[in-house]
Amino acid sequence: MKTMVDLNCDMGEGFGHWRYGDAPDSALMALISSANVATGYHAGDPNLMNEAAALAKAHGVGLGAHPGYKDLQGFGRRMIRSSDEELVNDILYQTGALREFARRHGIGLQHLKLHGALYMEAATNASLSRHLIEALRESDPDLIVFCMHISETHEAAQRAGHPVIREFFADRDYDDNGAIVFTRKVGGFDPEAIAAKCLRACREGVVETVTGRDVAVPFESICFHSDTPGALAIGKAIGKTLTDNGITIAPAARVLASGTG
Questions:
Q1: Mode of pairing for the β-strands spanning 214-216 and 18-19
Q2: C-beta separation of 36 from 251 below 8 A
Q3: Residue 193 belongs to what domain range?
């Protein structure tokens, strides 16, 4: 039974006058403990990054960069073939942009979480994950990396002794290997059913897969997505269910430091 867990959500997923998702970041930020902020390639712009950093400071939320493929049209959900070096440089470039807004508002950058297709590519690409972790060891050895337990990213971080947080995905399905089923379009969900799924994961460490089996999913953070229909209700339901059952919601850095996740 977990006593403390991080609750993270994607933020700033718009561009100019365009917005993605049906809930404002200001409302979602009040529910979570860590925010993954789009950094310009799949979504996001300087104004949205600045706004997210200010909101994170106001709510005591851990601020994280959410870099993706350079794919505004496809929202970063299409794989783009590039060398490891090019992708890692893209990631560092995007992360640096958000870091400046964090500094502007007097807070640090807590974590890095790859977005969409890039997250899934790194999960199965040992070379890319190794190059990413090596670069982070040089640029910011304290920057926490978010990833799935069953991923090359997690393996690379552990081998290098780099801080890492494993995620449980509230609004995504799982396959029998314990990996999420990647999808480009997500339908509606019952917030209470998602909250129950998260509570069971915290209590038993398992999730039911698409075939009806239970598989173990080790994690320290629960993720839900701002572009999932009904995201605000989902976030509220998860938070209430966890806290009503004695589970503290805290930023990833605190969960990692406590060892209680």
A1: unpaired
A2: no
A3: 4-258
Residues ≥6 apart with Cβ < 8 Å to 215: 174, 176, 177, 178, 206, 207, 209
Helix or strand run (H / E) with residue 193 = helix 191-204
In angstroms, the CA 91 to CA 126 distance is 16
In sequence order, the 6+-apart residues with CB closer than 8 A to the CB of 7 are 31, 32, 33, 34, 221, 222, 224, 235, 238, 239, 242, 249
Q: Is the dihedral of CA 248, 65, 227, 83 positive or negative?
A: negative
pLDDT tens for each residue of 163-195: 999 999 999 999 999 988 866 555 568 999 999
Structure tokens at 179: 């990996």
pLDDT digits (tens, 9 = 90+) for 3-26: 999 999 999 999 988 887 778 999
Say what the pTM is: 0.95
Tell me what pLDDT residue 182 has. Answer: 67
CA 130 to chain centre: 19
Beta bridge partners of 9: 35, 224
Q: What is the CA radius of gyration of the chain?
A: 17
40: left (phi over 0), alpha (psi -120 to 50) or beta: left
The tally of domains found in the chain comes to 1
pLDDT digits (tens, 9 = 90+) for 226-236: 989 999 999 99
- Residues 172 and 168: their CA atoms lie apart, in Å, by 9
